[in-house]
Design a protein that fits this description.
With about 475 residues, this protein is α+β, with helices and mostly antiparallel strands. The chain is built from 17 helices and 23 strands.
Length: about 475
């Protein structure tokens, strides 16, 4: 069995040459087998000497005292084995209610969010095995999926690696017995509320009565589909650069005419890749969503803006030649800076991701060496020299008088009734009207960062500077405000 796992790791290059790999450990037979196997081959003097393991366990708060007990047992085992360990706890029922997910889906989402937080971009090893693959193929078939769903789980999926994917559950149990491992039993694995459990305990036994080799048949079909899918992915590679205009962490923009010109099959596979990149490596799109997207592309009226809300907190927005996919943030993904009721309090100096947007915001004082000559130029009202020193302002960067700003700046998005005094005007004006005057698309108005002092708006990023925040001959404190797409 160890040789089979090594062959899988080498064939798909699952482990890095050096660095940390986070291993998800529930304490059950599968994950206990995985971490035990990896300990034999990772570390100084072993097959993968540069790889360092770190175990991570999440208490989903679904099983009360039983869940707490399991966490303690896993922690003790990892300490005994000398594996660094991280324990997390997430209230999955509360997450399911808050994000309107099923309990099963919320548990999966919580688990991967936790593992990615621990990993910080490093590989994450999970214990999916061949029997899990069979169940996944049936789940995809039941829910409806295209070719990608019929392939099932790949050995490598973004930052997720699956070294046990070629190993059966029976082999894993035999390994645990051979090495005197004592796995925990999660009784929720028999809870009929979870669809995967019903597939495992009800559907698969029925199918085996009809075809005793159903597991091998499903895996063989998946391998055939994988060959076809691999060719299609090379076609997506070839048209990606001519179709995708820009990529950001929470937004990808496509050239709509270029997408329309592709064969429908390539359109679907490209859109699946786009949505997967925005949704942590797993596309939430199903066949019905592709039909809705096709309709969005073909029925768009000239110049008008149309939207389509999709699963996974995705939104497709089409306008003129642009098709934009955006992903809305959740509280768990938002910035750790304090988000007050009236917005995010950004320290000076400081930078942060603004929750609910695809923007990274920053505020900083001018360096002392530069501040003095700039103030001298301001006193003389020598504006060419001011902008030579600072660089000309643009849509994404402004310089303001910091006299009315304390240690923090409040940053948030637009709310009805917001007003500011545009540069050069003597009266305040509704931001809604300013957005219209500046031809800011309606879809962008709701995510435009607004910078506030304690008394008024300083800057509507990319749209308007407040007259009271402008630099003058009396300015002593100069702040630089900026935004950047993530």
């Amino acid at each position: 069995m160890l040789e089979k796992v090594i062959a899988c790791i080498d064939q798909y290059r699952l482990l890095p040459d050096a660095g940390k790999v986070v291993v998800g450990v529930s304490g059950g037979a599968d994950s206990l087998c995985l971490i035990h196997l990896l300990r034999q081959i990772c570390g100084p003097g072993k097959r993968y000497p540069g790889v360092e393991l770190q175990a991570a366990h999440l208490n989903h708060m679904l099983r009360g005292a039983e869940g707490e007990h399991d966490a303690q047992v896993v922690a003790h085992t990892m300490e005994t084995w000398g594996v660094p360990f991280t324990l997390g706890k997430i209230d999955v029922p509360a997450l399911a209610r808050r994000e309107k997910r099923s309990l099963e889906d919320a548990a999966r989402v919580a688990r991967y969010r936790f593992l990615r937080e621990v990993a910080g971009g490093r590989p994450i090893a999970v214990a999916h095995h061949a029997d899990d693959q069979v169940e996944t193929l049936l789940l995809h078939w039941l829910r409806g999926s295209g070719l990608a769903g019929l392939v099932g789980m790949p050995p490598r999926q973004g930052d997720i690696i699956r070294p046990l994917l070629g190993i059966s559950r029976a082999e894993i149990l035999a390994y645990c017995r051979e090495h005197a491992l004592n796995p925990l039993e999660d009784h929720s694995n028999r809870d009929p509320r979870f669809l995967r459990n019903r597939v495992r305990h009800e559907l698969l036994p029925l199918l085996q009565e009809l075809n005793p080799a159903i597991r091998r048949t499903l895996l063989r079909n998946a391998e055939v589909a994988r060959i076809d899918l691999a060719w299609l992915e090379t076609q997506v590679d070839s048209c990606w650069s001519s179709t995708v205009v820009s990529e950001q962490e929470q937004m990808i923009t496509l050239d709509a005419p270029a997408l329309r010109a592709l064969p429908v099959s390539l359109q679907h596979h490209l859109l699946r890749r786009v949505s997967a990149r925005l949704c942590e490596g797993q596309s939430p799109l199903e066949p019905r969503h592709f039909l809705l997207l096709e309709r969005l592309l073909t029925e768009q009226a000239g110049g008008g803006e149309r939207r389509l809300h999709l699963p996974g907190r995705l939104r497709a927005v089409i306008q003129a030649r642009s098709l934009r996919f955006e992903r809305r943030s959740t509280p768990e993904e938002s910035n750790p800076l304090p988000l007050a009721a009236d917005g995010l309090r950004l320290p000076i100096p400081g930078e942060a991701a603004l929750p609910g947007t695809s923007w990274r915001i920053a505020a900083e004082p001018l360096p002392a060496k530069l501040a003095r000559p700039v103030r001298e130029a301001l006193e003389q009202e020598n504006w060419p020299e001011v902008w030579r020193l600072l660089g000309p302002p643009d849509r994404w960067t402004v310089y303001i008088d910091g006299a009315s700003v304390g240690e923090h700046i409040l940053v948030r998005t637009w709310r009805p009734g917001d007003r500011m005094q545009p540069l050069g005007m003597s009266q305040e004006k509704k931001l809604q009207d300013i957005f219209v005057d500046q031809h800011i698309p309606r879809s962008e108005r709701l995510t435009t960062p607004l910078f506030f002092s304690e008394t008024h708006c300083l800057w509507a990023a990319g749209a308007c500077l407040d007259h009271r925040a402008r630099l003058t001959g009396q300015t002593q404190r100069i702040l630089r405000l900026s935004i950047q797409p993530m």
